[in-house]
Amino acid sequence: MAAEAQPADDGTETIGRGETTRYLLALTIGALVGAGLAATWIPERQRRRLPALAAKRYRRVRRAGSAALEEIREAGRELSGEFQEEIGATLEAAREEFRDMVRQQLEHARKALRPERRVRES
């Protein structure tokens, strides 16, 4: 009892869940059989060296990956340092502005209080 493809609303055909499962199973079995056949066609001496070659390639990829990762880390450190400097400069500017504002208000308050002192002293 094979499930037939059902026409969809847009005019294309859809495959049922059972058909998809069978298709994937057949694809997996085909890939495994193909890999097994390919392995039997490789000469014995080369088959023995395959794990070493794969490990060598893996080490190369790992080194390249770690080098790229180190570049990313360095760029991150640089950006972080620049960001910290920028934040520090912004905070310092805000502190200076706040100090100036407080000084101006204190001077204004002192000027406003001086005439009262003169009036009280008289």
Keywords:
122 residues; mainly alpha; two-stranded antiparallel sheet
What would your notes on this structure say?
By secondary structure, the chain is mainly alpha-helical. It has one domain. Helices cover 84% and strands 3% of the residues. It contains 2 helices and 2 strands; from the N terminus they run ββαα. It has helices at 17-41, 44-121, and strands spanning 6-7, 13-14. It has a two-stranded antiparallel sheet. A hairpin with a 5-residue loop joins strand 1 and strand 2. The longest helix is centred in the C-terminal third of the chain and has 78 residues, at 44-121. The radius of gyration is 39 Å and the shape is elongated.
Brief characterization of the structure:
The protein has helices spanning 17-41, 44-121; strands at 6-7, 13-14. The protein has 122 residues and is mainly α. It has one domain.
Report, as a whole number of angstroms, the end-to-end distance.
116 Å
Tally of separate domains: 1
Q: What is the typical, i.e. mean, pLDDT? A: 81
Secondary-structure element string: EEHH
Shape: elongated
Reading side by side through the largest sheet, how are the strands ordered?
1-2
Gyration radius, rounded? 39 Å
**The biggest beta sheet, please?**
2 strands, antiparallel
Q: Which structural category fits the helices and strands?
A: mainly alpha
Number of helical segments with 4 or more residues: 2
Q: Percent of residues in helical segments?
A: over 70%
In total, how many beta strands?
A: 2
Beta percentage is under 5%
Low-confidence stretches: none
How would you summarize the topology of this molecule?
Layout: E1 6-7, E2 13-14, H1 17-41, H2 44-121
Antiparallel strand pairs: 1-2
